[in-house]
Amino acid sequence: MKRIDLLSFGVGVDSTALLAMHLDRDTSAEALGITRQELDEKFPPFVAAVFSDPGSEWPETYENLAYAEKRCAEVGLPVVTVRHTIPVYHHNETGEELRHEEWRILPKSEKGDYTKGEKVYKIYEWLMDGGMLPVIGGQQHTCSMRFKGNVQQKWAEETFGDHTVSEKWWMLGIEANEGGRTDRFTANHGQNKVKGHEYSYPLQELNMNRQECLAMLKILGWDYRGDGSPVKKSSCMWCPFCKEWEVDRLIDADGVGLKEALAIEERFYSEDKHEKWHRDGMPLNKGGRCNRGHHRTPMASGWCEDPNCTHVYKITPEPDKKSGLSGYKKEFKPYTEKIGAWKLMPFQWLKLAESPEGNEIVPHPVSGEMMARKDWYERYPVANLGKATLNSLTYNGLRYSMKEHIARRNDALLEKEMQKLLE
């Protein structure tokens, strides 16, 4: 089977360092103090650098991309930009555009009047259309795979064939000290692994961290702005995992990124999907989760007065005398360290009360005998954790909305100016 080596090009510091090293492997090997052969073994030459554009990257990222395209064109190396698309249907005469869900419900006699096509669908549009945040409690972080990993894989399948024809090896810019990111990479473990796609981490093989990547870029003369500016970290401008300095960067730039961030939160708060869940009778799927368009917890408001949402039933076992740990910690799952007990939501506890064997409860490893011990559960109030927010940073245990971050940043700048005046 043919092996295809590809660079997953995020256009940030790490993947840009890999691209620059590929363009000048002899100098890179010398700078690392290894032979060219050793470099090629740990970081094999690749046939293309593939950037998946979600549509909300920083302007500096797109500047660096243009520079990379220019440098690579000089040696005939493809830099491919791919984007997430959705199916759309255009009317053959009027040009009217319909989404798939709109076209699907048309009368059969009218469907033939439309021609199917594809349209680029940006991450910002996806969040606004669904009234969603990229990451909220109880749900997975899926945007990286939806707008990056899956898009790259689709392009590779179309270009080089599926797993029966070729094996695509993606090289990712994950640093030597970022083993946790490797472990969490969605497409590279468990049942999420996609046939025909494998992943490697050359920076870890070469034991390179962020500072060494920046130093390597300087050695190799990578100057995307022509003024010696270092390459910036790449991400969506309002990524929920932004650190405080990145949130401040977003606010200080006061550009399209901040406007998008404010709009995403405003759209999310405009529709209380938890309230809608109550109105619709609190339905759950077989996995015990809400259906699309519902939230089981009050994420838009932060609090719910309904009795089913203001308390939980918890088991708080007696500590083991020798270890001091909960005697039932391994047996009752899921066990949450923060809560310190195995808990049931009110509707789950009611199902347990109706079914002594616990058969009506969401599947879990607890035995029917243990579940029958309803007297082990006690009712506890639920703390008001506040509304869900775009960014995951917390201050005094609470998350800040973008408007609150703007106020925080303005206060910090004002305090800084006052200190200058007092000096």
Percentage beta strand? 5-15%
- How is the biggest beta sheet arranged? 5 strands, parallel
Name the poorly predicted regions.
323-341, 356-372
Q: Rg, please?
A: 26 Å
Helix fraction, binned, reads 25-40%
Q: How many domains in all?
A: 4
CATH architect. name of the largest domain: 3-Layer(aba) Sandwich
Average pLDDT reading: 84
How many individual helices?
A: 17
Give the strand order, joined by hyphens, for the main sheet: 3-2-1-7-8
**What would the principal axes of the Cα set say about the shape?**
globular
Distance between the termini: 70 Å
Q: What's the name of the CATH homologous superfamily of the largest domain?
A: HUPs
Number of E-type strands: 14
Outline the structure in words.
β2 (48-52), α4 and β3 form a beta-alpha-beta unit. 38% of the residues lie in helices and 15% in strands. Residues 323-341 and 356-372 have low confidence and may be disordered. It is built from 17 helices and 14 strands. A five-stranded parallel beta sheet has the order 3-2-1-7-8. The protein has a four-stranded antiparallel beta sheet with strand order 10-11-9-12. Strands 5-4-6 form a three-stranded antiparallel beta sheet. The protein is of the alpha/beta class. It has four domains: 2-82 and 128-219, Rossmann fold (3-Layer(aba) Sandwich), CATH 3.40.50; 85-120, no CATH class; 238-287 and 384-423, no CATH class; 311-381, no CATH class.
Detail the topology: elements first, then pairings:
Elements: E1 2-8, H1 13-23, H2 25-32, H3 36-42, E2 48-52, H4 59-73, E3 79-82, E4 85-91, E5 97-99, H5 100-104, H6 108-111, E6 114-120, H7 123-130, H8 143-160, E7 166-171, H9 179-184, E8 197-200, H10 202-205, H11 210-219, H12 244-253, H13 256-269, H14 273-279, E9 311-315, E10 335-336, E11 341-344, H15 346-354, H16 368-371, E12 378-381, E13 394-395, E14 398-399, H17 402-422
Parallel strand pairs: 1-2, 1-7, 2-3, 7-8
Antiparallel strand pairs: 4-5, 4-6, 9-11, 9-12, 10-11, 13-14
